[in-house]
Input
Amino acid sequence: MNIILLGAPGVGKGTQAQLLVERDGFVQLSTGDILRSEVQKGTPLGIKAKFFMDKGELVPDDVILEMVASKIIIGESYLFDGFPRTIPQAEGLDRLLVEKAMRIDRVISLELNNEEIIRRLSARRVAINSGRVYNLIFNPPKVDGKCDITGETLIQRSDDMPEAIQVRLKEYERKTAPLFDYYQSKVGVKVVDALGDIETVYSRIKAALL
Ligand code: AMP
Output
């Protein structure tokens, strides 16, 4: 089964994706995680992407589609997190999946009010190598400032600063929100309330996957 997690930045897609990978055997494909790792390694792709990411803008569709195409392996159960982000990306993914005789089985839209989104993003910390996401308010690491798994130092993403958050929310409304109707007419979209603790939201997602 392949699923897409839709939702604005900060609704908890990455956190829920971690659980779905650990407990349900999905392979997470997070374009944000892949890009951050490229930025950290200083690759040509990373250098190009950083220019957009630091400002909170979307990376161009052709760059994203080429990157995703190189990752998809036939037969895996993918959980797409933060991708697709635009209609051209969704159309590109459709073409890619047809080529590989795969399809999207479920689309989940996590929904949360903007005030809570901003509160969560401001308290978010990430471990670049492990890709794990923490939140100082409701999901802190066991040891202050260190990843539970790798022990690496947690960082605050440059795009989790207030100005970039505003740009990202606008980019979401303008370019990503239209994906709701796109998938509603194709496979249907299950709306999941993302307000609540991590386990509660996870149970709602599981119910939506049945
Ligand atoms: P995320 O970790 O999903 O919040 O992504 C962080 C940043 O990476 C975004 O603000 C964009 O600059 C870039 N990014 C991640 N995924 C995509 C995508 N599918 N399309 C365009 N830009 C993306």
The mean pLDDT is 95. The CA atoms of residues 85 and 203 lie 25 Å apart. The two ends are 11 Å apart (CA to CA).
